[in-house]
Amino acid sequence: MDPRSRNGIVGMFLAAAATVATLLLELPLVVPILLFLGGCLLGVYVVRQSLRRR
């Protein structure tokens, strides 16, 4: 996959996750949302590292 298109997909996913987190900040679910976003960022990092090794 082209690096620019992959970065665009990752950027769109992060923007959508940030939008969902912003909408849900009013609720008492802040900690699970932050853990979810942290897991997403960690997953993106692991995927990028594994693609970089190939």
Automatic annotation (TrEMBL):
Transmembrane segments: 7-24, 30-47
Domain of life: Bacteria
Keywords: Membrane, Transmembrane, Transmembrane helix
Protein name: Uncharacterized protein
Organism, as annotated: Lentzea flaviverrucosa
